[in-house]
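A note from the maintainers: we've had questions about how concatenated examples are separated. There is no special marker in the raw files; a new sequence line simply starts the next protein. For clarity in this README we add a label.
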Amino acid sequence: MTALRALLAAGALALAACGSAVAAESTFDAPAAKRQAKETGLKTAIFAGGCFWGVEAVFSHTKGVTSAVSGYHGGTATTAHYDQVSAGGTGHAEAVKVTYDPKVVRYDQLLQVLFSVVADPTLKNRQGPDSGTQYRAAIVPVTAEQRQVATAYLAQMRSSGVWDKPIVVQVENLQKFYPAETYHQDFFEKNPSHPYIVRWDAPKVVALKAMFPSLYRTSFQTG
């Protein structure tokens, strides 16, 4: 019974982690980057785009991504725990650390995917049904090259005319990334019938396949 109660408790926490399922998010025709990334060897990148389940799910189905890990970025080690982050005020954003092969998918392409099928860059401190600074969308460059590409891409997004509202997403300085609890990792793959996944995150993966067929892979790359 103790194990059962622990399992049920974990499930309840997971359900609360990303709010209540309401409806699928919109997609956007984010422009292809004019300033393409020039990188070699496996690289890592950090992105925040609301609930990390969906961010991780999309990048785990992206060709060239070798790892996608859900976690927390922006606060301290003391507060890098779900119960504290979800309450707000820690400075952390739910984020995903992506490891990728630039020979297969470039950093600028990952940015295009992020703002096409994952996150609405016009929303401040919220995405989908989730609100609070912990659900902000953000780009966290890990290298000088990534920062230059991200800055140029945001400028391009602002002048693209794709979005009717101002772009508010920020480029944030790199701080330590803290992996989230085990039950959050590969949540999409492990819980395909979860109501939040069905209503909010599965459509993002479907959109990835439809909008970026050359980057989509059927298999799920676990963290």
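[label: protein 2]
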Amino acid sequence: MIPRALPRIAPLPGLSLLFALALATTGCNLAATPSVAAPLPDPTLDTPNAASQHEQVAVLAGGCFWGLQAVFEHVKGVHKVWAGYAGGSADTAQYERVGDGDTGHAESVKVVFDPAKVSYGQLLKVYFSVAHDPTELNRQGPDSGTQYRSEIFYTSEQQHDVARAYVAQLSAAKAFADPIVTKIAPLPAFYPAEAYHQDYARLHPDNMYIVYNDAPKVEQLKRQFPSLYQSEPVRIDAK
């Protein structure tokens, strides 16, 4: 596993200057972006956009939660996005423990959204298109380990059906050059990450990891989903 920087600009202590320079010059190639043959289709099975429904929650894992949070904070209809952990127990839901790769947790995001403005299926389309590469097994870009796996944690049977149908649809269409390895499982619980991880990309835009791995994903969201993109990201501390 390649550790990520916690200071605003400098890489994590322990990264050599040589590696930092290599990351700075080749980092765009390290960004976890899917090898898509063509723009992904809309899900044939989706949840309805009903104005009468309350807020809903989607929990998604796919690499570093900084990048996932950064992407979904720019999606119209999304109200809040928390970085955190899912798949393991409460007593191991800490960054240092999850980093060992043996807790069952995956770095994840909890996305609270308005189903009248954006459907669950549309969130999944963003997830598969720009938020991560669903063909990478237990890794994303420079990060490796089961804590960086691709996984959808569904919160209802309806979400389960939509997720399974969309993975099958993309697989049948051979939308990616390699097989999709995304897991689909019920959400046992979501545990918010430590405060310094929240809104990390927004607060630390000059961090090398953000510049070369996460900022390009937001740019792809803007290009590929102009009708869903919002320039001002939502904030978890907003009322």
